[in-house]
Design a protein that fits this description.
Length: 755
């Protein structure tokens, strides 16, 4: 089916021209099935189940553009911030010139939230959890929404994030204004059940436009099965030389492929292994430098991670994981896409958010996971994870023949085991996630959203969920569900988040805030107690005391940050802690000392202290390199930790306002939330409105030191001095953007005065 045939379905010819310019001339099989069978361009609900690179994402895009053209809003939901940013920039660059207003919203991208609540957008790209929160704050948010697209639907089965997504989808299904629903996934074991629950047509096509050879490499021979043809075969791979050692095999093979101009993605089980794997690969390659990437990297903030990257890029190799900050990752992604970087080592946990096409993908079939006691242990990756990662090989538009997804075996036994488990393996059914977790947070969400005022109404909605339809309603499990529901309601009532009023169940102001922010019920109860107990000395509570409290909440404890055995046993954080506590009032100091106890005998408390102390340095604007050295970590992990805790600080500030803390104290907590996102002193926050590549926190703090933290003073700063602080290209772009911000500010002021 030609792309031009879509004009008959109401697609604007200008849009069709854009798509053809982007290389979309014929609909792929799954796209044609979605249009003709599921009627996605006529408002039909659909579950699109097909492999990575089969064109399913474009189904959501076609429907989104068609819906926006009809003056209905589109919500495009994704699981990760990186995917949200990527999709936002892609849609904005493609359709912005036609007047399509695209916005994005994540936990730390809040600037578009007022417009989303008011419906001032055409397409809004939103992370799952953020949409969950927005629907509490604004229960009518779906009123003018014509389409909801859910990317990576298999996240419903994730124990951590699946329950909130399931509640969100249940709300969409039950919404009075019934928006169209399109769900996308490459890895769904029981797609028919999900489609039935959603009232959707299942569009299923397991063919890939580019053939994929999935297999196991052992002693120089790659035994594989072709994805489309299902043929099994063998391919000698020149770089293997029969080594049994996995790393030696990997290095030799990647080197051989690179010499022949083939790029490789190497997925490792941990951040540390990414670097330890990238080093010997770089040492084995002598194919020139990634000069453009190195030039881009020089403009970014100094950090140890940047130094590691620069050394690897000298050999056209890179790593890509949570240790890199957003700007560093972008440099690597651009360089890999243009072929300048030949090998990227990434973690399996980032596979979903890593949209990089490659001819070859190497997969470690183990990953790290914490057991119920909190200890880290290695576990096999699931079949769904394997399918998702292996699908990165042989992407559409990149390879004419085939891609390879390679698992390396170290013995004949492993070769057979890995082939049977993964290559011949089948996807398991998606487990209903709500059945595995306490219901208190979801009960609070439903009551705070004003969807339910009684236990009977909560019961009705939860039984309408996917878990309700496939799990709780059968085999005598309703009594188990009833017990969980009673327990959840009692927990929320006892914690002061829900009250039983004349009109039934109602969320308190604290409960509404907790639901809107998406924090755990226990976190909300702990925050309320902290604020209540500290109300009489609100003006005296300092940064460390607040951050220490946040790290101890239920949500704060779940935010992992690595602490090595050597760090714990060295006692280095105990010494830093003494200095941090010294300026505090004696009574507060004694109380915190008693709570903290001895770091030397308690690993968990030491880990908590590391997080708290690091975050204090971060919000003071200390140089990134100094924080990295002091806490044995890299810039990306530091900024990631700050963003996670910014959400909790924002919640705490909201609660402080609700219970009547002084305005100045509330403002300090609000400021702390922004500081945690950006890693600057409060004085530097006005400059964080400037979004400019190369304009880092270090450069913001340099401007603050000169007294140029206000836009009006910055625009008047001598250009030569500005250039010396931030480099000439950044200084020129900075001047232009500040001028535009000031013009916008003046226009808003004029509009306010005229109104």
């Amino acid at each position: 089916m030609r792309i031009t045939a879509l004009e008959a379905f109401g697609i604007d010819p200008r849009i069709l021209d854009l798509w053809q310019q982007a290389g979309f001339t014929e609909l792929l099989p799954i796209q044609q099935q979605a249009v003709q069978t599921a009627k996605v361009l006529d408002g039909g609900n659909a579950v699109i189940f097909s492999p990575t690179s089969s064109g399913k994402t474009f189904v959501g895009e076609m429907a989104a553009v068609r819906t926006a053209r009809k003056s209905r809003r589109v919500i495009y939901l994704v699981p990760q911030k990186s995917l949200a940013e990527e999709k936002f920039h892609e849609f904005r660059s493609r359709y912005g010139s036609l007047g399509v207003r695209v916005v994005v919203s994540t936990r730390d991208r809040r600037d578009n939230d007022p417009d989303i609540r008011r419906g001032r957008f055409h397409i809004a790209v939103i992370v799952f959890e953020k949409m969950h929160a927005l629907m509490v704050n604004c229960p009518t948010i779906l009123r003018n929404v014509g389409l909801v697209v859910i990317d990576e639907l298999q996240m419903l089965g994730d124990e951590t994030r699946g329950p909130a997504l399931e509640i969100l989808l249940t709300k969409v299904l039950l919404a009075a204004h019934k928006p169209q629903i399109i769900c996308l996934s490459a890895v769904l074991g029981n797609a028919k059940d999900l489609a039935a629950w959603l009232g959707a047509t299942l569009c299923e096509d397991h063919r890939r436009p580019v053939e994929l050879r999935r297999g196991v490499l052992y002693q120089g021979l790659f035994n594989y099965m072709e994805h489309n043809a299902k043929r099994e075969g063998s391919e000698p791979l020149a770089g293997s030389n029969g080594e049994a050692n996995r790393l030696a095999t990997l290095v030799g093979q990647v080197r051989s492929l690179a010499i022949h101009g083939e790029q490789s993605l190497v997925f490792c089980r941990s951040k540390n292994e990414c670097i330890e794997t990238a080093r010997p690969i770089a040492a084995a390659l002598d194919l020139g430098h990634a000069d453009d990437a190195l030039a881009e990297l020089r403009d970014l903030e100094d950090s140890e991670g940047k130094d590691y990257l620069a050394k690897l890029l000298q050999h056209r190799v890179a790593f890509h994981n949570a240790d890199l900050d957003w700007h560093q990752r972008e440099v690597i992604e651009r360089a890999f896409r243009r072929g300048e970087v030949l090998v990227v080592c990434s973690t399996t946990t980032l596979a979903m958010g890593l949209n990089l096409p490659a001819r070859n993908v190497f997969i470690d079939t183990e990953r790290w996971e914490r057991d119920r006691a909190g200890r880290w242990t290695t576990v096999p990756i699931s079949q769904a994870e394997y399918e998702n990662i292996s699908g990165r090989a042989g992407r559409l538009g990149l390879e004419k023949n085939f891609g390879r997804a390679i698992v390396i075996a170290e013995s004949e036994f492993d070769q057979d085991r890995l082939f049977e488990t993964y290559v011949r393996g089948e996807l398991g059914d998606l487990e209903p996630a709500l059945a595995k977790v306490p219901l208190s947070q979801h009960v609070l969400n439903l009551v705070a959203s004003r969807m339910c005022r009684s236990e009977a109404e909560i019961r009705e909605i939860l039984l309408a969920s996917y878990t309700g339809s496939v799990h709780w309603r059968g085999d005598g499990r309703e009594s188990e569900f009833t017990d969980k529901l009673h327990e959840a309601i009692h927990h929320c009532v006892d914690g002061g988040l829900i009250v039983r009023g004349k009109n039934g169940l109602e969320a308190t102001e604290i409960g509404k805030l907790a639901a809107a922010k998406g924090v755990a019920v226990d976190t909300a109860i702990e925050m309320h107690a902290f604020l209540r107990d500290g109300a009489d000395r609100a003006s005296e509570i300092g940064t460390f005391e607040v951050i220490w409290h946040l790290t101890g909440t239920a949500d704060g404890q779940r935010i992992h940050f690595n602490l090595s055995k050597n760090e714990w046993q060295s006692g280095e954080y105990a010494a830093i802690l003494v200095k941090e506590l010294a300026p505090l009032a004696s009574q507060v100091r004694r109380q915190l000392r008693a709570e903290i106890g001895s770091l030397e005998v308690n690993y968990e408390i030491t880990q908590r202290a590391k997080k708290a102390l690091l975050l204090c340095d971060w919000v003071r604007g200390l140089p990134t390199r100094q924080i990295e050295a002091r806490f044995h970590c890299f810039a990306g992990s530091i900024s990631g930790l700050g963003s996670e805790f910014a959400w909790l600080a924002e919640t705490l500030a909201g609660m402080a306002k609700v219970i009547g803390w002084p305005d100045e104290s509330v403002a300090r907590l609000e400021s702390l939330s922004g500081q945690l996102v950006h890693g600057v002193e409060s004085a530097g926050l006005p400059l964080t409105a400037i979004r400019l590549r190369g304009f880092s926190r270090g450069r913001i703090m340099a401007l603050v030191a000169k007294g140029w933290q206000v836009l009006e003073t910055l625009i008047a700063a001598p250009f030569d001095e500005l250039r010396r602080l931030v480099t000439k290209p950044v200084a020129e772009a900075l001047r232009d953007q500040v001028a535009r911000l000031l013009e916008r500010k003046a226009a808003q002021a004029d509009g306010t005065s005229q109104g």
